[in-house]
Write a structure and sequence with these properties.
This protein has about 250 residues and is α+β, with helices and mostly antiparallel strands. It is built from 14 helices and four strands. It has helices at about 1-10, 10-15, 20-25, 30-45, 50-75, 75-90, 95-105, 110-115, 120, 130-140, 180-200, 205-210, 210-225, 230-245, and strands at about 145-150, 155, 160-165, 170-175. A hairpin with a 3-residue loop joins strand 2 (about 155) and strand 3 (about 160-165).
Protein backbone atom coordinates (compact mmCIF):
# COMPACT_ATOMS: atom_id res chain seq x y z
CA UNK A 1 0.00 0.00 0.00
CA UNK A 2 2.79 2.43 0.90
CA UNK A 3 4.49 1.65 -2.42
CA UNK A 4 1.29 2.58 -4.26
CA UNK A 5 1.00 5.80 -2.27
CA UNK A 6 4.59 6.72 -3.10
CA UNK A 7 3.93 6.22 -6.81
CA UNK A 8 0.95 8.59 -6.59
CA UNK A 9 2.61 11.18 -4.35
CA UNK A 10 3.07 14.65 -5.84
CA UNK A 11 5.54 15.52 -3.07
CA UNK A 12 7.75 12.53 -3.88
CA UNK A 13 7.50 13.17 -7.62
CA UNK A 14 8.75 16.75 -7.35
CA UNK A 15 11.58 16.01 -4.91
CA UNK A 16 14.85 15.25 -6.78
CA UNK A 17 16.05 11.70 -6.19
CA UNK A 18 13.12 10.85 -3.95
CA UNK A 19 11.00 8.56 -6.21
CA UNK A 20 13.65 5.82 -6.47
CA UNK A 21 14.78 6.27 -2.87
CA UNK A 22 11.25 6.11 -1.45
CA UNK A 23 10.45 3.02 -3.49
CA UNK A 24 13.59 1.29 -2.23
CA UNK A 25 13.10 2.35 1.39
CA UNK A 26 9.44 1.37 1.58
CA UNK A 27 10.09 -1.92 -0.20
CA UNK A 28 12.77 -2.87 2.32
CA UNK A 29 10.90 -1.72 5.42
CA UNK A 30 10.02 -5.17 6.79
CA UNK A 31 13.58 -6.42 6.42
CA UNK A 32 14.99 -3.38 8.20
CA UNK A 33 12.52 -3.69 11.07
CA UNK A 34 13.48 -7.35 11.44
CA UNK A 35 17.16 -6.39 11.47
CA UNK A 36 16.45 -3.79 14.17
CA UNK A 37 14.73 -6.47 16.28
CA UNK A 38 17.79 -8.69 15.96
CA UNK A 39 20.03 -5.76 16.91
CA UNK A 40 17.88 -5.15 20.00
CA UNK A 41 18.11 -8.82 20.98
CA UNK A 42 21.90 -8.64 20.77
CA UNK A 43 21.97 -5.49 22.91
CA UNK A 44 19.64 -6.94 25.54
CA UNK A 45 21.40 -10.30 25.52
CA UNK A 46 24.87 -9.00 26.41
CA UNK A 47 26.21 -11.02 29.40
CA UNK A 48 26.34 -9.14 32.71
CA UNK A 49 29.98 -10.02 33.33
CA UNK A 50 31.21 -9.37 29.80
CA UNK A 51 34.64 -7.67 29.79
CA UNK A 52 33.28 -4.72 27.81
CA UNK A 53 30.51 -4.13 30.37
CA UNK A 54 32.93 -4.27 33.30
CA UNK A 55 35.36 -1.84 31.64
CA UNK A 56 32.52 0.47 30.65
CA UNK A 57 31.07 0.59 34.17
CA UNK A 58 34.51 1.18 35.67
CA UNK A 59 35.15 4.15 33.40
CA UNK A 60 31.77 5.69 34.18
CA UNK A 61 32.34 5.34 37.91
CA UNK A 62 35.82 6.87 37.62
CA UNK A 63 34.51 9.79 35.56
CA UNK A 64 31.47 10.46 37.74
CA UNK A 65 32.74 9.81 41.28
CA UNK A 66 34.78 13.05 41.69
CA UNK A 67 31.62 15.15 41.35
CA UNK A 68 28.89 12.79 42.50
CA UNK A 69 30.68 11.39 45.56
CA UNK A 70 31.08 14.68 47.47
CA UNK A 71 27.55 15.73 46.49
CA UNK A 72 26.11 12.52 47.94
CA UNK A 73 28.16 12.82 51.12
CA UNK A 74 27.03 16.40 51.69
CA UNK A 75 23.45 15.58 50.66
CA UNK A 76 23.51 18.59 48.35
CA UNK A 77 20.50 18.04 46.10
CA UNK A 78 21.46 20.65 43.52
CA UNK A 79 25.00 19.25 43.24
CA UNK A 80 23.67 15.70 42.90
CA UNK A 81 21.34 16.75 40.08
CA UNK A 82 24.17 18.65 38.36
CA UNK A 83 26.52 15.64 38.58
CA UNK A 84 23.88 13.24 37.25
CA UNK A 85 22.95 15.57 34.40
CA UNK A 86 26.61 15.77 33.35
CA UNK A 87 26.78 11.97 33.46
CA UNK A 88 23.74 11.88 31.17
CA UNK A 89 25.15 14.39 28.68
CA UNK A 90 28.67 12.93 28.56
CA UNK A 91 28.01 9.27 29.38
CA UNK A 92 27.17 8.11 25.88
CA UNK A 93 23.93 7.29 24.05
CA UNK A 94 22.30 5.21 26.80
CA UNK A 95 22.60 7.97 29.37
CA UNK A 96 21.71 10.69 26.88
CA UNK A 97 18.48 8.79 26.16
CA UNK A 98 17.77 8.48 29.88
CA UNK A 99 18.44 12.20 30.27
CA UNK A 100 16.05 12.99 27.42
CA UNK A 101 13.41 10.89 29.14
CA UNK A 102 13.89 12.81 32.40
CA UNK A 103 13.77 16.12 30.53
CA UNK A 104 10.26 15.29 29.28
CA UNK A 105 8.81 14.74 32.76
CA UNK A 106 8.07 18.40 33.52
CA UNK A 107 5.09 18.51 35.84
CA UNK A 108 5.96 15.12 37.32
CA UNK A 109 9.30 16.14 38.84
CA UNK A 110 10.60 19.58 39.92
CA UNK A 111 11.43 21.99 37.10
CA UNK A 112 15.02 22.20 38.36
CA UNK A 113 15.46 18.52 37.47
CA UNK A 114 14.01 18.73 33.97
CA UNK A 115 15.96 21.93 33.29
CA UNK A 116 19.22 20.26 34.36
CA UNK A 117 18.69 17.43 31.86
CA UNK A 118 17.45 19.64 29.01
CA UNK A 119 20.93 19.67 27.48
CA UNK A 120 20.49 15.99 26.60
CA UNK A 121 18.21 17.14 23.80
CA UNK A 122 20.54 19.56 22.04
CA UNK A 123 23.88 19.97 23.84
CA UNK A 124 25.48 16.54 23.51
CA UNK A 125 29.24 16.71 22.82
CA UNK A 126 29.85 15.66 19.19
CA UNK A 127 32.02 12.79 18.04
CA UNK A 128 35.42 13.87 16.76
CA UNK A 129 35.67 15.04 13.16
CA UNK A 130 38.27 12.30 12.57
CA UNK A 131 35.78 9.63 13.66
CA UNK A 132 33.07 11.12 11.44
CA UNK A 133 35.48 11.35 8.49
CA UNK A 134 36.35 7.68 8.97
CA UNK A 135 32.65 6.75 8.91
CA UNK A 136 32.07 8.78 5.75
CA UNK A 137 35.07 7.16 4.11
CA UNK A 138 34.02 3.59 4.97
CA UNK A 139 30.48 4.19 3.77
CA UNK A 140 31.62 5.64 0.44
CA UNK A 141 29.76 8.91 1.08
CA UNK A 142 33.00 10.89 1.24
CA UNK A 143 33.61 10.20 -2.46
CA UNK A 144 30.36 12.01 -3.29
CA UNK A 145 31.29 15.16 -1.36
CA UNK A 146 33.25 18.15 -2.55
CA UNK A 147 33.44 19.36 1.04
CA UNK A 148 31.81 18.99 4.44
CA UNK A 149 31.80 21.15 7.56
CA UNK A 150 33.70 19.50 10.42
CA UNK A 151 31.63 21.46 12.96
CA UNK A 152 28.21 19.77 13.27
CA UNK A 153 25.00 21.73 13.00
CA UNK A 154 23.50 19.54 15.72
CA UNK A 155 24.61 16.57 17.78
CA UNK A 156 22.39 14.05 19.57
CA UNK A 157 22.57 10.60 21.13
CA UNK A 158 22.64 8.49 17.96
CA UNK A 159 23.88 10.77 15.20
CA UNK A 160 25.04 14.24 14.29
CA UNK A 161 24.29 16.52 11.37
CA UNK A 162 26.81 18.30 9.13
CA UNK A 163 26.49 20.75 6.26
CA UNK A 164 28.12 19.48 3.06
CA UNK A 165 28.46 20.16 -0.66
CA UNK A 166 28.09 17.42 -3.27
CA UNK A 167 30.55 17.09 -6.14
CA UNK A 168 28.03 18.80 -8.46
CA UNK A 169 27.85 21.82 -6.15
CA UNK A 170 24.53 20.99 -4.49
CA UNK A 171 24.40 22.06 -0.85
CA UNK A 172 23.10 19.28 1.38
CA UNK A 173 22.92 18.19 4.99
CA UNK A 174 24.29 14.78 5.98
CA UNK A 175 23.37 12.80 9.07
CA UNK A 176 26.10 10.51 10.38
CA UNK A 177 25.68 7.82 13.03
CA UNK A 178 28.14 8.01 15.89
CA UNK A 179 30.81 5.31 15.57
CA UNK A 180 30.66 2.35 17.97
CA UNK A 181 27.40 3.25 19.68
CA UNK A 182 25.75 -0.18 19.39
CA UNK A 183 28.55 -1.88 21.31
CA UNK A 184 28.58 0.94 23.85
CA UNK A 185 24.85 0.64 24.51
CA UNK A 186 25.10 -3.15 24.73
CA UNK A 187 27.76 -2.76 27.42
CA UNK A 188 25.50 -0.38 29.35
CA UNK A 189 22.50 -2.69 29.07
CA UNK A 190 24.53 -5.57 30.51
CA UNK A 191 24.80 -3.95 33.96
CA UNK A 192 22.00 -1.38 33.93
CA UNK A 193 19.02 -3.70 33.39
CA UNK A 194 20.07 -6.26 36.05
CA UNK A 195 20.67 -3.40 38.51
CA UNK A 196 17.20 -1.98 37.90
CA UNK A 197 15.59 -5.42 38.15
CA UNK A 198 17.36 -6.04 41.46
CA UNK A 199 16.21 -2.66 42.80
CA UNK A 200 12.64 -3.42 41.73
CA UNK A 201 12.73 -6.75 43.56
CA UNK A 202 13.54 -4.88 46.79
CA UNK A 203 11.30 -1.83 46.46
CA UNK A 204 7.56 -1.92 45.67
CA UNK A 205 7.42 1.64 44.31
CA UNK A 206 10.20 0.91 41.83
CA UNK A 207 8.46 -2.28 40.77
CA UNK A 208 5.25 -0.35 40.10
CA UNK A 209 7.21 2.26 38.13
CA UNK A 210 8.67 -0.57 35.99
CA UNK A 211 11.90 1.28 35.27
CA UNK A 212 13.53 -1.83 33.82
CA UNK A 213 10.66 -2.22 31.35
CA UNK A 214 10.93 1.44 30.38
CA UNK A 215 14.66 1.13 29.78
CA UNK A 216 14.21 -2.08 27.78
CA UNK A 217 11.67 -0.34 25.54
CA UNK A 218 14.05 2.60 25.17
CA UNK A 219 16.82 0.24 24.06
CA UNK A 220 14.56 -1.46 21.52
CA UNK A 221 13.66 1.92 20.06
CA UNK A 222 17.36 2.82 20.04
CA UNK A 223 18.01 -0.30 17.93
CA UNK A 224 15.64 1.14 15.33
CA UNK A 225 17.12 4.65 15.53
CA UNK A 226 20.54 3.22 14.69
CA UNK A 227 19.29 2.57 11.15
CA UNK A 228 19.15 6.02 9.55
CA UNK A 229 17.47 4.58 6.44
CA UNK A 230 14.71 3.27 8.69
CA UNK A 231 14.38 6.77 10.12
CA UNK A 232 14.17 8.22 6.61
CA UNK A 233 11.51 5.65 5.72
CA UNK A 234 9.45 6.72 8.73
CA UNK A 235 9.73 10.34 7.58
CA UNK A 236 8.47 9.34 4.12
CA UNK A 237 5.55 7.43 5.66
CA UNK A 238 4.65 10.45 7.78
CA UNK A 239 4.82 12.77 4.77
CA UNK A 240 2.60 10.42 2.75
CA UNK A 241 0.08 10.27 5.59
CA UNK A 242 -0.08 14.08 5.80
CA UNK A 243 -0.36 14.33 2.02
CA UNK A 244 -3.21 11.81 1.97
CA UNK A 245 -4.99 13.66 4.78
CA UNK A 246 -4.81 16.83 2.72
Amino acid sequence: MADIQSEESAWIARTPGMPDAARTWLGGLDDRLAAADRRADVILGTPVLSPAAIVRLGRLVADTAPRLGPALLSRDGDAIIAALSQLAIRGGPTYVKLGQLIATTRGLVPDAVTDAFAGCRDAVPPASSAAIASTLRRSGVLDALRSWDRQPIASASVAQVHAAVLNDGTEVVIKVRRPGIVGLVASDAAYLLPALQFAESREERLRVANLSGTVELMLRLFAQECDLVLEATSAVQLALAFEKAG
